[in-house]
Amino acid sequence: MDDQMEEYRKRQREQYQKRQQDGTEQTEAPADEKGNSGQVSAAAAADLVEASVQDAGAASSSAGASAGTGASPPSGSLKLVTWNVDGLDEGQIQLRHTALADWIKTHKPDIVYLQEVVYPTLRILRKHLTSTYDIIIPTNPRPDPSDMESLTRGIPCAYFCAVLLNKQSIQACGAPDSKWYPQSCMMRHLLSIRARPTAASAKDAELLLGTSHLESTAEYKNERVNQLSIVATNMEGWLSDPDTPSVCTVIVGGDLNLRDPEVKAAGVPSHIRDVWELLGKPDSCRYTWDMAANDNLVMQGGGKPRCRFDRLFIGQRPQGSASPPSGRYRWVPQSIEMVGTDRLSSCGRFISDHFGLLVKLELAVPTEGGEGGGSKGQKAKAKAKKGK
Amino acid sequence: MDDQMEEYRKRQREQYQKRQQDGTEQTEAPADEKGNSGQVSAAAAADLVEASVQDAGAASSSAGASAGTGASPPSGSLKLVTWNVDGLDEGQIQLRHTALADWIKTHKPDIVYLQEVVYPTLRILRKHLTSTYDIIIPTNPRPDPSDMESLTRGIPCAYFCAVLLNKQSIQACGAPDSKWYPQSCMMRHLLSIRARPTAASAKDAELLLGTSHLESTAEYKNERVNQLSIVATNMEGWLSDPDTPSVCTVIVGGDLNLRDPEVKAAGVPSHIRDVWELLGKPDSCRYTWDMAANDNLVMQGGGKPRCRFDRLFIGQRPQGSASPPSGRYRWVPQSIEMVGTDRLSSCGRFISDHFGLLVKLELAVPTEGGEGGGSKGQKAKAKAKKGK
DNA sequence: CCGAATGAG
DNA sequence: CCTCATTCG
Ligand SMILES: [Mg+2]
Ligand SMILES: [Mg+2]
């Protein structure tokens, strides 16, 4: 049972060593090198024979559920979940990831951030979700063998992040972006995509969505802090990018492997907030990786560590006087809960060694003369204080 | 043989635990609480029965050897050695430290920085060197049991730093200062003393001398970086202290346990220089702690690590137009060599697991119209470049 | 008093 | 994919 630790380490090591050697050999890359915007289509997925075979029935999204039509006042809600789904644990992988797909079909989140996706689990997700979700994975930069820097990171990535967008409620705008942390020895990356809700009442309130799996283990604290700084810098850039004035809110999160002091160390600016903190730090979803509550992974020796590894950061476009129209919108967190906390009856294990975090957001228009709609959670107050 | 490692760890742990408990009990403190300026006199050393019993014959110092008399042009040379003498290793301690005292009597350095002095070895040094050297050890602040912060550092210190000043060539000015790093879990401290050469030709070129043993082991990198920052801040303060305008040069060093990246991390200002680097980074004295060259300590498992743990930093008082007269002097490193590299014939071991660093300095007066004397080493050039 | 790896809580 | 302590090269 606890050769999983060994397995984990082994895989990390294998990948690390691999990049030293065969930086040029493309095996099964998470890429698209076909210019299809990094969004996986059935056509691009040559390795995917079962794609679209068994799509879930069309799920009605909750986003825009409260939306009016046409020029009605802006309104809308979104559900976002982030989850490290532990594709590196091969035990009951089929059962666990079928259950994950079922969970997604049942709860119909609008946005799904996944970490530790591997090809076998990607196939499962595609099989069940292709008709209802766009599945976005990182591009895999083609390594240039004469470029050492490229060689150190351009190799096929054995596990990676993914963003799923509910086709009914939200759609990708433009190509996703994959930034590979240059100093990572675990091929960690930041996967991001701009997205627009489909509901007419919310379609002008675009989001910049990003997910990442920051460098793991205490040993790589320094690199993880660097990576978080990169994340924060990207978030700041997106929040002030004049090319995408319609983006009002940036949400980046995932398995960040963070210990609290590291957030300060990274210098995350104060206007970028931790969603769990914004929502009052509920104890019920503090420890997203908790060996006392989840025995998918068992420490040798019987220790029961737990950590708040999975986090979401949110930033709102500044509302300067000269801000674009989207500057008046903001997606505001309303609630947060932990998911995946039940054992699967089929195998007695959990979907992952991490729990997921499910966050509900509502669209708010905090201009004078009344709330634009939906922003009546505890978050509304925090936002009002924060707004200039 | 390699229960030394165990011993080391054990002692460190004991001390750490001790401070949690008996913060108030004074055992054998390195102190003077008698207001004698921290400089150990035979009278203050109640535990020292053999003091002055067997003094070495008066050694003629090299400092001022080249000095003229009276109002002749400033000139002078000084020899400074820094050495972690591993008093925590009790093996052959008497032989090893008698050999250390012999080395000092033979080479007659003007300034000696020692680390890991313990009471038994202090007695040996006193026995052989009291008549020829002033032996300065840290004050031991009396802990106030109601003051938690004091409790964490005010306990008797089992091993400590010392500064020895050759009575013939240099004399302490005022009281020494002991700064205890507040976050140290090893009771580490910075021991400093202002000193004036006795030679008439150099008596206006005072030095601020400091030695320290920074937090050991890779594990305590962060605390060590903090401590180095404190050292650098103190050096800057001394270099600009209007109360001691006669101090022209500050030299602080010892067993700093540094790995190269930590120096940057500590933000040591660029005008504070590493003496070994100033002198061209000679390979012959790079590794002051070298298991390949010194088997006083043997790693279990047979590893042969080596590090440049022992370092000296030097800073010169800025020569602003309004600078005091001493601003025109500077003690300039001329050469550096490693000492203690021979096995003792008596026991086949080395004096310490660390080698010592012996540095020769000469007094320079780099004003326009010719060198003031002595500054013709390779260092003179570096100084000339550095001088404003 | 190294750094990487291992083992136990 | 925890922390500490220990082992091993
Ligand atoms: Mg994992
Ligand atoms: Mg030592």
TrEMBL record, chains A, B:
Start-end of Basic residues biased regions: 378-388
CDD domains: TDP2 (cd09080)
Gene Ontology CC entries for this record: cytoplasm
Domain of life: Eukaryota
Keyword Magnesium recorded: yes
Matches recorded under InterPro entries: Endo/exonu/phosph_ase_sf (IPR036691), Endo/exonuclease/phosphatase (IPR005135), TDP2-like (IPR051547)
GO biological process: double-strand break repair
Entry's Gene Ontology molecular function annotations: 5'-tyrosyl-DNA phosphodiesterase activity; metal ion binding; nuclease activity; single-stranded DNA binding
Cofactor(s) needed for function: Mg(2+); Mn(2+)
Annotated localization: Nucleus, PML body
Transmembrane segments: none
Limits of the Endonuclease/exonuclease/phosphatase domain: 81-217
Region Disordered, residue ranges: 1-46, 368-388
Keywords recorded for this protein, A-Z: DNA damage, DNA repair, Hydrolase, Magnesium, Metal-binding, Nuclease, Nucleus
Pfam family, one: Exo_endo_phos
Keyword Isomerase set for record: no
Basic and acidic residues: bias regions: 1-22
Name of the protein in its database record: Endonuclease/exonuclease/phosphatase domain-containing protein
Source species of the chain: Vitrella brassicaformis (strain CCMP3155)
